[in-house]
């Protein structure tokens, strides 16, 4: 390779990054600024210039998709032997190789999902949890292990971290300890323990450390704002006393703090390495100026450490349409209208796979699945089984590989479709969700054949089989010709021509569980990530009630203030949760007692609650407690019910601000309490406080 030719086509900032061949290097890269292009060209330039060999490079990222994309780009740049892997993939490779030497005996079985073992551990502790509760518990265990918190330290650690446990903290600690015991007794290994063991192996065995560090001398870490303490521990073990490391990231795309990620390693990189090179990428090649203005505006009033490193994006694309801000009476109306707008975009020429509907919680997906189905628009939901692990895809890939020898002279696309037809690829999608999902998977393979044929006219079945083999090896799934439905967390790293951000109301964006300033700021960054997924068309919408004819008590998200037309100023609104002093709403005195702060009045000041409402709340509580076979105070204490009767909250956001109404109780009892406050009877499914919609899923 000619080193100079590798650098062709880079902008000045990307060129600066690619020419910084020796570490430490920190690349602060805003959304859509070409960070993958910059780091892959930097790697290829280092190889071409003789600074390092391909085999000595380890490029680490967070998803198999990103690693696959990086390997694909490096192949095209003439560096196909560079190792581009996730932390987990690199760790399991090293641990497996050195296990006989370092530890000996049979290698533990790797746990792909914790849920089953967590369920058994919880049961052993006498905890009866539904699937939502088990997912929450598994998330707490992952956070604890990622931040190096042991079961014995869990209770004090979450206080220090300002974290709210999804259940009594001692129950989490007991289940965590039981889970760890099960893994030890049954020779099981989860992803976190795998990283920890790999780091320990390198630290405790000098010969292994020498071999690993001799193999890998040149490191690149993508999405460095998402690194957690355990991953940093492993990276430091790989590095040893060297500093030839290039880190890339954007502090304002930190959206996984709940899982232990911290932007501190990125924002503090210059302090850790005073002689480092820092490059800022701000030229946005993804989005139109109209979308970029919304993105910059979304962070204008951000606060905290991440905001101190905010990058002001500079749009490079021509003008596009103005973003749409739309308010609806209710959620079904919002979903129906969005589906119609999507159908119109498709009719106007936007491919369905270039359109996405993004929402805060996975529970919001159902309304849009139904609306798109009613409109006759194909869609796919992100977060399902990995593409190449699906049974129908394994069968299809095996069949396609076998057909490469006997393929005739028919065009590639028609040949592939003929082969897939007996497996279920009909001209039109079938009825039924499972049948449709199978059809969608096969249709994605057919679409991949079309992409290969378009990129390489005259491509044969051999060419297609080679492309399949490369994608299977890198888990690089093809795109399906359908609208994408995804949570904002799962949309990270992706982009579409048209993005519909839906459900933008207080309580959903920011989510009601975001109580501290830091949590609200993370929600703001999540909103920013959603905005920056759009290349050209951006639609932002919200509804005033959940169902037709319901109370129109919802408020548009505070993150829309100053962005949408005629919205209030942002000034001062985000300070609402910072106040430490609580004053009596009757006499104005400062309140210090917990019970008084809950009621927002002095104990001897006259109460102004609705006595009839309080009695109805107590009667409902009694019924819920009887159904769940728990004491009444477990549902709500008398003081909390009195506070509810005094405040009479009209929506989830207001209810969540009442002390004693935490995340779990909001999920279980929120709808029933709001119905009672509105003078209505709770729905049958809400009366007993049994979750029926699933709690918020932070990320998939």
From TrEMBL:
CDD domains linked: DEXQc_UvrD (cd17932), SF1_C_UvrD (cd18807)
Domain named UvrD-like helicase C-terminal: residues: 292-536
Annotated UvrD-like helicase ATP-binding domain residues: 8-288
Binding site for ATP: 29-36
SMART domains in the cross-refs: HRDC
InterPro entries: DExx_box_DNA_helicase_dom_sf, DNA_helicase_UvrD-like_C, DNA_helicase_UvrD/REP, HRDC-like_sf, HRDC_dom, HRDC_dom_sf, P-loop_NTPase, UvrD-like_ATP-bd
Entry EC no(s): 5.6.2.4
Catalytic activity as recorded in UniProt: ATP + H2O = ADP + phosphate + H(+); Couples ATP hydrolysis with the unwinding of duplex DNA by translocating in the 3'-5' direction
Domain of life the protein comes from: Bacteria
Key words of the record: ATP-binding, Helicase, Hydrolase, Isomerase, Nucleotide-binding
Pfam family, one: UvrD-helicase
Enzyme kind, highest EC tier: isomerase
GO MF annotation: an example: helicase activity
Entry-linked SUPFAM superfamilies: HRDC-like, P-loop containing nucleoside triphosphate hydrolases
PANTHER family: ATP-DEPENDENT DNA HELICASE UVRD2, UVRD / RECB / PCRA DNA HELICASE FAMILY MEMBER
Entry protein name: DNA 3'-5' helicase
Originating species: Streptomonospora halophila
């Amino acid at each position: 390779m000619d080193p100079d030719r590798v650098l062709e086509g880079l902008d000045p900032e990307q060129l600066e990054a690619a020419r910084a061949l020796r570490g430490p290097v920190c690349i602060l890269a805003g959304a859509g600024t070409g960070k993958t292009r910059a780091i892959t060209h930097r790697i290829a330039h280092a190889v071409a210039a003789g600074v390092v060999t391909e085999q000595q490079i380890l490029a680490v990222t967070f998803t198999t998709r990103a690693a696959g994309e990086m390997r694909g780009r490096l192949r095209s740049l003439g560096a196909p032997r560079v190792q581009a892997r996730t932390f987990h993939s690199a760790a399991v490779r090293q641990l497996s190789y050195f296990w006989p030497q370092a530890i000996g005996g049979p290698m533990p079985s790797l746990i792909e999902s914790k849920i089953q073992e967590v369920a058994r551990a919880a049961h052993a502790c006498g905890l009866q949890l539904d699937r939502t509760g088990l997912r929450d518990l598994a998330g707490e265990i992952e956070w604890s292990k990622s931040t190096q918190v042991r079961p014995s330290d869990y209770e004090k650690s979450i206080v220090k971290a300002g974290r709210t446990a999804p259940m009594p903290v001692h129950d989490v600690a007991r289940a965590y300890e039981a889970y760890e015991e099960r893994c030890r007794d049954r020779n099981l290994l989860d992803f976190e323990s795998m990283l920890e063991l790999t780091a320990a192996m390198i630290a405790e065995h000098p010969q292994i450390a020498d071999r690993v560090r001799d193999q890998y001398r040149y490191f690149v870490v993508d999405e460095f704002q998402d690194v957690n303490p355990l991953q940093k521990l492993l990276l430091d073990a790989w590095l040893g006393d060297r500093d030839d490391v290039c880190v890339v990231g954007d502090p304002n795309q930190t959206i996984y703090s709940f899982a232990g990620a911290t932007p501190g390693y990125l924002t503090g990189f210059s302090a850790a390495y005073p002689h480092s090179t820092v490059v800022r990428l701000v030229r946005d090649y993804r989005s139109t100026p109209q979308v970029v203005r919304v993105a910059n505006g979304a962070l204008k009033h951000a606060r905290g450490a991440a905001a101190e490193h905010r990058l002001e994006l500079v749009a490079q694309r021509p003008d596009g349409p103005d973003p749409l801000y739309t308010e609806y009476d209710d959620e079904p109306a919002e979903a129906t209208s969005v589906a119609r707008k999507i159908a119109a975009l498709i009719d106007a020429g936007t491919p369905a796979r270039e359109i996405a509907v993004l929402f805060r919680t996975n529970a919001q997906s159902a309304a849009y699945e139904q609306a798109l189905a009613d409109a006759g628009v194909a869609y796919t939901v992100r977060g399902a089984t990995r593409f190449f692990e699906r049974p129908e895809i394994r069968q299809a890939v095996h069949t396609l590989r076998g057909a490469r020898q006997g393929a005739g002279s028919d065009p590639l696309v028609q040949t592939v479709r003929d082969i897939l037809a007996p497996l279920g690829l009909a001209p039109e999608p079938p009825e039924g969700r499972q049948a449709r999902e199978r059809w969608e998977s096969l249709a994605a393979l057919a679409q991949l054949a079309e992409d290969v044929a378009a990129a390489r006219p005259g491509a044969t079945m051999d060419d297609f089989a080679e492309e399949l083999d490369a994608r299977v090896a890198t888990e690089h799934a093809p795109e399906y010709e359908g609208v994408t439905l995804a949570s904002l967390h799962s949309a990270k790293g992706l982009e579409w021509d048209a993005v519909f951000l839906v459900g933008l109301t207080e309580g959903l964006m920011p989510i009601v569980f975001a109580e501290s300033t830091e949590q609200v700021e993370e929600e703001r960054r999540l909103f920013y990530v959603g905005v920056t997924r759009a290349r050209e068309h951006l639609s932002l919408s919200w509804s005033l009630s959940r169902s037709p004819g319901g109370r129109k008590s919802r408020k548009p998200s505070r993150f829309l203030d100053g962005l949408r037309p005629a919205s209030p100023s942002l000034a001062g609104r985000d300070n609402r949760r910072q106040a430490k002093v609580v004053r009596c709403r009757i006499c104005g005195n400062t309140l210090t007692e917990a019970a008084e702060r809950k009621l927002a009045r002095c104990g001897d000041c006259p109460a102004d609650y609705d006595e009839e409402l309080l009695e109805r709340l107590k009667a409902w509580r009694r019924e819920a407690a009887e159904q769940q076979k728990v004491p009444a105070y477990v549902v709500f204490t008398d003081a909390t019910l009195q506070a509810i009767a005094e405040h009479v909250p009209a929506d989830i956001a207001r209810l969540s601000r009442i002390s004693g109404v935490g995340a779990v109780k909001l999920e279980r009892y929120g709808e029933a309490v709001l119905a009672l406050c509105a003078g209505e009877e709770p729905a049958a499914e809400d009366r007993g406080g049994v979750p029926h919609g699933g709690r918020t899923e932070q990320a998939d």
